[in-house]
Specification:
The chain is built from two helices and two strands. With 79 residues, it is mostly helical. Helix 1 runs antiparallel to helix 2.
Length: 79
């Protein structure tokens, strides 16, 4: 949320709008005439793209691995 400058309660529309505005500003092609800034723009663009991707499609929570304890090692682990 912080990378895109949106509040924690921002809906999908606000997130998309913020990403669109920042991507226009920081897209590396826009900075092609300024090689010193192009690398910076590439880094910033990757950060905002990652934030956008995570906010709109959060990763699935990993299920905990449950192991069965017993007297011998033959019982193994369950996933």
């Amino acid at each position: 949320y912080e990378r895109l400058g949106v509040p924690l309660n921002a809906n999908e529309r606000k997130i998309k709008k913020a990403y669109y505005q920042l991507s226009l500003l920081w897209h590396p092609d826009r900075w092609a005439s300024y090689p010193l800034y192009q690398r910076l723009a590439q880094d910033v663009f990757e950060l905002i793209s990652e934030a956008y991707r995570l906010l709109l499609d959060p990763p699935e929570p990993k299920e905990p691995v449950v192991t069965q304890t017993g007297g011998d090692d033959s019982q193994g682990a369950y996933m």
